[in-house]
Amino acid sequence: MGKSFSRVPSTILVAIFFVIALAIPLGVRAEEQIVVGYDGYAGFQGPIWATKDLGLFDKYGLSGELVLIPGSARGMAALISGSAAFVQGSATAPLSAYLRGGDVVVVAAALNKFPFSVVARKEMRNPSDLIGKKIGILNFGGSNDLAVSLAFKEWNIPRNAATILASGGAPERLAALMTGAIDATVLSPPETVAASRAGLKILANLSDLNASFPQTLIMVRRSFLANKRETVKRFLRAYSEGIYEFKTNKEKAIKVYANRLKQKDLNILEETHSYYGPKFSFPPRVDRGGINNALELVRQGVEVKGEINLGQFVDESVIDELEREGFFKKLSDARTRK
């Protein structure tokens, strides 16, 4: 075998190996490794979980490692330091980093609405019943905090009419509500399902607010976008297909939720998917009005001098490119033909 190959000119051997390389499916070739951070366990994390669990990173030539990074500040630190190439999270932390000169840019958004509901003690019936009560949120300066502020604004209730408390994660806040330590909190599925079953009152779904908010964004470093644009494009192909599968394939979505949420109750899984599925954005574009809402909150903690150029904070040029190439339409057409 070695002798027969030795008689073949080197230029022909190179051509043969090049043809063989092209014939190897994309998923079998050496994949580019990326680290993707996300910030918690809730139904709105579905798109990034689906992208990983449905093999879509592999499909587009990426070896994606998902890393849970609790706390938005830690996520931004991991992104800006280069420890993570992509981070999924809400708008406030990257906006704060950007206004302080951080190398961060938003390239996509899977969810542009608050995913929360106001859950209260069972005897409470209306938002006005929140006046004078204790309301638990995750922390100050985050999306929980902004959701309560904007809800109170729509309900014509002064923010200082209630006591807002930092009360821990969703499980801790649900437990505090059930024991009477707080009177109300903001929760999202599947915790809202558990709350309803326990007899607690869903006062309002904050996704129905007039105000929008980019809850689930994809952030990269602007320098990474400039130098590794093709990697960002492959990531957004995978991520967009993950969103589309989540919205249109209930069976796959529920399997992802069951695995990631460690939940076996089919009713809870179905209710969680029914809540989030229609709300995910496809194509994953950013609601600029929601960015402005987040900016109002961030202004309270960051001294801003001069004009703010949000055009440098959001860059949808890769999404635009995919749109021009017909990528999103091809996904829809492929599902229609099945």
Tell me what the structure shows.
This protein is α/β, with parallel strands linked by helices. The chain has two domains: 31-113 and 213-337, Periplasmic binding protein-like II (D-Maltodextrin-Binding Protein, domain 2); 117-208, D-Maltodextrin-Binding Protein, domain 2, CATH 3.40.190. Helices cover 46% and strands 15% of the residues. It is built from 16 helices and ten strands. Helix 6 (92-99) packs across helix 14 (288-298), helix 11 (229-248) packs parallel to helix 16 (327-337) and helix 12 packs across helix 13. The longest helix is centred in the C-terminal third of the chain and has 20 residues, at 229-248. The protein is globular and about 55 Å long. Mean pLDDT is 86; it is low at 1-29.
